[in-house]
Structures are given as C-alpha cells and as structure tokens.
Design a protein that fits this description.
9% strand, five-stranded mixed β-sheet, rod-shaped, 69% helix, alpha+beta, Heat Shock Protein 90, 2 domains
Length: 379
C-alpha cells in the first residue's frame, strides 16, 4: 500500500513549522539579550535563553527543542550578533554557566517530552473512549428500536385476541345460552300447572337472561362488533349511550353525522382512547358531565375528551408528562397512538381535565375520500 503524498506533505510542513518556531524563539531571546546587554551585561544571557528552550520543548517537540538548546549554547558562547568571537577562550565561570544551562535545558526538554507523551496518550485514550461511547449508543438505539417493534406487536396481538374472544363468546356461549332459554321456556309452558315450580323456573329464566346480557356486554366491551361492521362513529355512539346509562354521567357527543371510515388500526386506537378516558372520568373525576368531540381536518383526526370534575393536581400533570410515571392505561394509549404517528396531551386547570389526541390519517384512507358528500368544514 502506497503512502498518501498529501499526508507526507502535511507531515513535512508541520515538522518544518515546529523547527522554525524553535529557531525563532531562540532568535527572539538573543535579540532581547542584545537589547539589554548595555544595561545588565552578560548576567541575564542564559536566563533569557531558558524560556526559549522551554517554549520549544513545550510546544515544538524533542527535536526542535534540542536544536534550540544547541543554538542557544553556541550563540551564547561565540555570539551570533557582531562582534563574533569564534576563537575566544572560556573562563571557568563561563564554562560553569554553560554547563548549568546545558543541564537545565536537558531537564526542561525531558519534562516537555514527558508532557507531550502524556498528552498523546490521553488523546488516544479519549479517542478510544469516544469510539466505545458511539458503539454503546448504536447498540442502545438498536435495542430501543427492537423494543418499539415488540411493543407494537404486543398491542396488535392484544387487539386480535380481544376480537377472537368476543367472537367466541358471541358465537358459542351466547348461542348455547339462547338455546337453554328456549328449552326452559318450553318446560315452563308444560309445568305452569305446577305452582311450586313456576317461581323457580321464572328465576332460572331471569338468570339466563342476565347471563346472556352480561356475556353480550363483555363481548361488546372487549371488541364491539360495530367497530368492524359499521365503523368508529357507530361504535362510539353505542358505547356513549351504554356508558351514560351505567355511570349516570351525562355525555355530550359532538360527532359529524357523515364521519366516514378510517383504517382499522386507527379506529381501534381512537375507540380504546375514548374507552379509557370514560373509565378514568367515572373512577376519578367525580364529574357529572363529559364531552367527546371528533373532527377530521388536514388529513388528521382530532379527538377531545373533557370533563368538569375535580381535575388533576399539577404534580400529577408533571408526572404524566414524564416518560416513566404514567399508569398502565395512559402508557397504553400513548404507545398505541405513537405506533400510528399520533400524540396524546393531558391538560387540567383544577376544574376539569381535557385529553387531546392528534392522529394522522393517510390521504387515501381519509373520511373525505370515503364519503364524497362531506364538506371540508364538516370533516
């Protein structure tokens, strides 16, 4: 494998720059020394050269710092600024100063090189740490994606299971109970003359009717057949009537008469949100009134469910807005809507609560497409 010429050019340019900086630092030290020489003589010569060596060792590397040390030693001994004295004889004091300067420079160069290697090691460790963090982040994103897919699959399986149980209850147990009721009615006609058994048979017929009603109610609550057969509007009207009758809570339903069909997943999600909100109002809000409003505009279904109850405390609102605190019902509604691209908001002012749902609907599946006669304002 060949070496990249541009990389070599950059490396060469960088090395030349470091050597140039080291030489420039020594030159500046000599210029300052020359300027101060008339005032202080030779007493501060080496003292001014040591910062230049330290600068070279700190910022330029071991090679440039060695060059700077040698230039400083030669320059201070023979002089680079006229008059140059190439054959001057050293005195003992000058020799000792040069030796001290040489050892001091060697110590500075060693410390600078140690610092440079430590910084390089820290940079390498930081790079490795950042790489591990990126890998862990990628693994976490993958795990979150798998979790979201699993959650969507669980919700789908739950709806399918509810639909199957509702169908089985209606088709098997309901039919059996109806046949039993007819048999008991026939027996009752035969034994009406027996007054002692008439009351027991009447009670049995009532019990059978109650059981049939309960089975039918449970089947409809699990998954109302109207939701699949007649659509969301009919299912919500049926559910609201039953809810108002059972809970004694007045319900105002604002739903366009020509509200068309939506995709099955969207209709199921909206119906479950309405069902969960009505249950919460009955259990917690102590509200005598509830309002449900559905509208379709700009390829989006808007659902608003409000009550006039005691509201939700501010700390509970903050808890519901966080990711880890909502109850099972709220979490299920949000997850179901999120899988379809929708959102759920909960607001309360102390005199009631409002749950708002925004659920996007594909243009090909919009109620306006299903019912051409509906105007945009009504949709």
């Amino acid at each position: 494998m060949g070496t990249n010429p541009s990389f070599l050019t950059r490396m060469s340019s960088n090395s030349l720059r470091r050597y140039a900086l080291a030489v420039a630092a020594v030159a500046v030290a000599f210029l300052v020394n020359s300027a101060l020489h008339p005032l202080v003589g030779d007493r501060v010569g080496y003292a001014l050269l040591l910062p230049a060596v330290a600068f070279s060792a700190w910022y330029c590397g071991i090679g440039p710092s060695i060059v700077a040390t040698l230039l400083a030693l030669v320059g201070s001994t023979y002089g680079f600024i006229p008059p140059i004295q190439p054959f001057r004889v050293f005195t003992l004091a000058e020799f000792v100063r040069a030796l001290v300067f040489l050892f001091s420079s060697a110590a500075i160069v060693a410390m600078g090189e140690a610092r440079r290697r430590q910084n390089e090691r820290l940079r390498n460790e930081q790079g490795a740490l950042e790489k591990r963090v990126q890998e862990r982040t990628a693994d976490l994103d993958t795990a979150n994606g798998n979790l979201r897919e699993l959650s969507a699959r669980l919700l789908q399986l739950q709806d399918d299971e509810r639909r199957r149980i509702a169908r089985e209850l209606h088709d098997s147990v309901g039919q059996t109970l109806a046949a039993l009721a007819m048999n008991l009615s026939a027996v009752r006609l035969d034994v009406e003359r027996l007054t002692k058994t008439t009351h027991a048979l009447t009670d049995s017929e009532n019990l059978v009717r109650d059981m049939s009603t309960e089975v039918r109610t449970i089947s409809h609550l699990l998954h109302p057949p109207l939701l699949d057969e007649a659509g969301l509007a009919s299912a919500i009207r049926w559910y609201v009537e039953g809810f108002a009758l059972r809970s004694k809570i007045k319900v105002e339903l604002d739903l366009p008469e020509n509200f068309g069909r939506l995709p099955r997943e969207s209709e199921t999600a909206i119906f479950r949100v309405v069902q969960e909100c009505r249950t919460n109002i009955h259990r917690h809000s102590e509200s005598p009134l509830a309002r449900i409003r559905l509208r379709y505009r700009d390829h989006e279904v808007l659902v608003e469910i409000a009550d006039k109850g005691k509201g939700i405390p501010p700390e509970k609102i903050q808890q519901l807005a966080s990711t880890g605190a909502p109850g099972v019902g709220i979490r299920g509604m949000r997850e179901r809507l999120r899988q379809l691209g929708g959102t759920l908001e909960i607001n309360s002012n102390g005199t009631g609560s409002v749950v708002t749902v925004h659920l996007p609907i594909p243009e090909t599946s919009s109620p306006a497409k299903a019912l051409p006669s509906s105007s945009p304002a009504e949709a």
